[in-house]
Amino acid sequence: MKQKWKVGILAATGTVGQRFVQLLENHPWFEVAELAASDRSAGKPYLQACQWKISGHVPEYVRNMKVKDCAPNLECDLVFSGLPSSMAGEVETTFAKAGYAVLSNSKNHRMDEDVPLLVPEINPEHLALLEIQQKNQNYQSGGYIITNPNCSTMALVLALAPLEAAFGIEKVNVVTMQALSGAGYPGVASLDIIDNVIPYIADEEEKIETEPRKILGKLKDGKVVFADFKISAQCHRVNVLDGHLEAVSIALKRRPSQEQFLDALKTYRSLPQQLELPSAPRFPVVHVEGADRPQPRFDREMENGMATVVGRVRPCSLFDFKLDLLGHNTIRGAAGAAILNAELLVTQQLLKTRSY
Amino acid sequence: MKQKWKVGILAATGTVGQRFVQLLENHPWFEVAELAASDRSAGKPYLQACQWKISGHVPEYVRNMKVKDCAPNLECDLVFSGLPSSMAGEVETTFAKAGYAVLSNSKNHRMDEDVPLLVPEINPEHLALLEIQQKNQNYQSGGYIITNPNCSTMALVLALAPLEAAFGIEKVNVVTMQALSGAGYPGVASLDIIDNVIPYIADEEEKIETEPRKILGKLKDGKVVFADFKISAQCHRVNVLDGHLEAVSIALKRRPSQEQFLDALKTYRSLPQQLELPSAPRFPVVHVEGADRPQPRFDREMENGMATVVGRVRPCSLFDFKLDLLGHNTIRGAAGAAILNAELLVTQQLLKTRSY
Amino acid sequence: MKQKWKVGILAATGTVGQRFVQLLENHPWFEVAELAASDRSAGKPYLQACQWKISGHVPEYVRNMKVKDCAPNLECDLVFSGLPSSMAGEVETTFAKAGYAVLSNSKNHRMDEDVPLLVPEINPEHLALLEIQQKNQNYQSGGYIITNPNCSTMALVLALAPLEAAFGIEKVNVVTMQALSGAGYPGVASLDIIDNVIPYIADEEEKIETEPRKILGKLKDGKVVFADFKISAQCHRVNVLDGHLEAVSIALKRRPSQEQFLDALKTYRSLPQQLELPSAPRFPVVHVEGADRPQPRFDREMENGMATVVGRVRPCSLFDFKLDLLGHNTIRGAAGAAILNAELLVTQQLLKTRSY
Amino acid sequence: MKQKWKVGILAATGTVGQRFVQLLENHPWFEVAELAASDRSAGKPYLQACQWKISGHVPEYVRNMKVKDCAPNLECDLVFSGLPSSMAGEVETTFAKAGYAVLSNSKNHRMDEDVPLLVPEINPEHLALLEIQQKNQNYQSGGYIITNPNCSTMALVLALAPLEAAFGIEKVNVVTMQALSGAGYPGVASLDIIDNVIPYIADEEEKIETEPRKILGKLKDGKVVFADFKISAQCHRVNVLDGHLEAVSIALKRRPSQEQFLDALKTYRSLPQQLELPSAPRFPVVHVEGADRPQPRFDREMENGMATVVGRVRPCSLFDFKLDLLGHNTIRGAAGAAILNAELLVTQQLLKTRSY
Known about the structure:
4 copies of one chain form a homotetramer.
Chain A: E1 5-10, H1 15-23, E2 30-37, H2 46-49, H3 60-63, E3 67-69, E4 78-81, H4 85-97, E5 101-104, H5 129-137, E6 144-147, H6 151-167, E7 169-178, H7 190-193, H8 204-215, E8 218-220, E9 223-225, E10 230-237, E11 244-252, H9 258-266, H10 271-274, E12 285-287, H11 296-299, E13 308-315, E14 321-327, H12 331-347
Parallel strand pairs in A: 1-2, 1-4, 2-3, 4-5, 5-6, 7-10, 12-13
Antiparallel strand pairs in A: 7-11, 8-9, 11-14, 13-14
């Protein structure tokens, strides 16, 4: 790989966009060539257009880059999209039509029949949908859309995958305690969350109850046959900056011992680990000892925020096992997931250099 | 009722003790005659012995009362105990032996076969255990122990009671998000909870999984036959001052419509409401409208903190219904529960004036 | 006083408007007859138009009142204005022109030469400006504008007044730690303030450095001659819901002993106390003992939030004395101040019944 | 430097001790050879003895090191002490007597006449006190005590130093808003600080009013002549994890323009920068643009937490200039300061290899 792929970031000034900017600094395979955002920002240098809201400072390399419009004249080969769902549907399609590989963090196309809801550890074979998508949609050569899951789904599904493979999942109950950064900026008002919990996040439960079944589904005759287990979700916003915590109960088709259950989680490795993708966690699922772990503030940075951290695994009188799991919602739950997807594309030779 | 009953408060300087002091100010039936606490506090005026940590100020009436030892020479008819479990077992027994009615908030005697785990709305018939208890334990006339449930149990069981009565409960899954005041003072260190959730509270899950089955149990041949449903609990500490929020899923023996389910909760009234006990909530279960309610900071004061507040009732794909419920952990979940228990005792003529 | 005065609330759905609604429930002299807000709310019942964000629930009496436009056809005698400064200037003038007494919480008219910046304890004689104002502005009979100070100014000036009277103030240095409710709703984003302090509040320092000098000024020849001391302010937003804390250092013209200094604060009473105005604090300045007081959460409700709470008074090596003071920013610092102003108007027979 | 100096950490399991452990991982000049703590921890592996409470995980290198007693049989050349003041006085003396260089973070010896209160940027010449100290105290060769300032002092004095040098300081008023980590663990109870500010920190104001005058003092005839300016401090604890913010007002002997004032801060470099000490910040004082900076959460990591971050510099009507400054209280304000002191000792050839 002599030269880096040129990438653009759509909605580069938003909170997900800021993570893309941060995570792509010094990336071995990708070079941020274009930053795009709304009209309000277009034309300004990034430092001026952006209210930086994540830890650490604005990387040097973007400070003076000029922000452009989100229009398909960006000089790059692929785009990472952190667009809000109000815009993502249309804009991402426009980019795919124009021949860009679009790696989307938005919900709009996730459930489209010909769009992979990709998790490289779990369903790389879903990439076969791309050929179908390009035919269906009449996208220009090289143009397609790949999505990554919702942040809460992401943390959950990494833990479900090895269990599904080893024992078959029957039922999953999940109660989330989600971080504020998941709501973007300005997002949740301080007057709403201090000394409080909000037991509702719009559309979130529907996503968690559906997306894992597509992700863990099998490709048959060019279509994803959804996995057949049931999920019930209850979502809460808590006074935490980053890191979604989920209290999960799981019933399995073939009940393992607790040791076997834990072993399936701890020994889980998959394609991104074998390929040693630059952003891949060494362990997609990390098990933490300690009766009171995982905790968002202390465990969210594990594996650079790219793993699901699991703890408190114990038998359940209603399901088979219960546990708490934690994922970094703006890293593996958003920007990091899209970047890992793009890294997989590189190794599968599914990226194409555009001419510009 | 010409004269008020004289009451004492054990562990009066602790956080539960402070609630007793606050809630008993101007009580129509009870007069705080004695404050007792550890050796460290004994002999000092209350204002000096106590680090007041609940909202509002130290009531005038206790400021200059002298704190005594927790020994059974207090000049009162009944005692409210906010003793920590490390001391409650023995001290409460000592008081019962000496002929005091003991209303205990501690876990020590809750599961004793002859001790009522009393919730006046639910199991007033369990008071029949008192006679047995006095015989078994050889307590002096008038002496006995009555307990109220753990704070998380309390909020849950008020909502379960009308459902058990109407439809029969089969299974309950509960994930708690509990307030800091539940841990007492100093309790949880600020460095542990800011920007964080702690997925563990010692012994809490065991209590929630057991206590409701005793509370909802039936008295047969002088013994409580536990209710036969199963509960699975996962407990979390969140960055909230007061108010335990619980995400609950419930399977019923006879599945009602959502309207019937809600109706059972909303129309629930019981003995304390009929007797118009001074501390009784008008509605033991309050239903709040609004997609994002109940919320601890905004709803915990409903019915003066004596009710369980329920919201987000909706069908569940794994159980029958799921919902969020909220209870004020230091009012109905602790001091307020014990006071309501004592009020029931008055109306049942189970209190006896001691001579002193 | 046979009948209550009919009052309207401008911007009744905002955070200050909500406090007006709450504090005017069961007011002995005033009856809320009209609620007005922006076009977006107009026509809706209050409960639906308003996102209630203060503690306690929406009072019964307003739930079904229909919200109207902020136009001078409201059927009431006076209006309380919680309008944002972007609108207050013009709208308040329109109401005054139409013959309404306007009690404004906004900054727009505070420094107008003929508008009283009224604190009933301090400068009731400034009400003489009203006659001049009506002539200058050609307002319809009964129409005028009276303002109350900025929230931080309010807490400070109540403590300065008795010191100015007794010893003469020379210099004041004040560093504020201000609550989130001061920024309205949605106001400060949670992502900005958790685990953080923001050392800046737009225009706040200018207000604190100027307003006290007008409030403590003397009326001469129909004009307020500003008090001649200097104030320097540094303002910060902290992670607190209600209650502005201020670290203050004061140099005096005639240096008293610490006892004399404290005595001036503690014995301070003034006209509202003598008149026993319904909202007047018994003590405008309350002194709290305790090395670590006042604290916002524990002390902001003193005197129903209508007093300034002072503590930690001690000598200063640069000024004469230093101390911390606390005021409830949305009660005495906003709605409560305007209501107390209106109560003073009633007793001074400066209100006039409008015909409608 | 062929071999690393062997260092020990006293109170290695405390919060300051944890920072020493973290900051000394991979240090180019020092190797942690010994961990010492209280009896309770002695004999256990570090991972088991320590409740890790700072961000990031326990470094590999210490996990299995056995914790020893705080007694002078540690096999190392110098010790970093994070001992609490209740123990530091005596224990540190014992180590110095036994020939260890002691780098202390505790208050006990800071004001001793023959002990340097060292800030390498400011007063390296105070190291001449060591020879006097050794004579006075009869310490074994190589043994002495060097202290670093209190955390709030540290942040302040780095900004004062260039101003004193350029313009002469006359008066300093400082109001602090200090982080929770400054109180150690468990430290401040969550029930005390949520939705609150505590306007008091024991002994803190005295330290800030005194220590800078020793640090900026001149050595004359073997004694430090304190700088002659006055400081007045008011200290507050706020709901922030790390980072002390200070609102400072400064009067100077020779009043500069605002540009000159800022320039003095921004161009400040000193000995640690010239020597390129491994832990030295490139800039001891960093100036941040932005009307609302510095902010603890966003700016505390600047220069790896080793600099004072200054912002909002503006004229003051009472003093000459006012500003806000921020320092990382457990890095430059504690462990990092002691390590930088030790690095200076290396370059000044003031360390001696002990035989063990």
